[in-house]
Amino acid sequence: MTHLAATATIHHATTTATLPDALPALPVILAWLTLAALVWALGYAAACAAAPFARCRRCDGHGKTITPKGRVRRWCRHCDATGLRLRWGRRLFNYLRHL
Ligand SMILES: [Zn+2]
Prior knowledge:
With 99 residues, the chain is of the alpha+beta class. The protein contains 2 helices and 4 strands; from the N terminus they run H-E-E-E-E-H.
């Protein structure tokens, strides 16, 4: 008589979730992100100093909205028909200067 016994083996999960060694440590990533933010801020400050005005986003610098036939629909109210807007960095600079 054969005895068929069900054998149940319990495998414990031995794999642990570890980060690969190739990834840099968190302080290194934060240092690079901080450096990138500083470079971006310096570039944006230079852009605000060199060209404080940018094209109006609403009318795309035309100062007016145009019908498909090419006629003036209305003058842009967001830029007072100048087609220019002040960059927010320059606006912040002006605000801080007048404190
Ligand atoms: Zn406009």
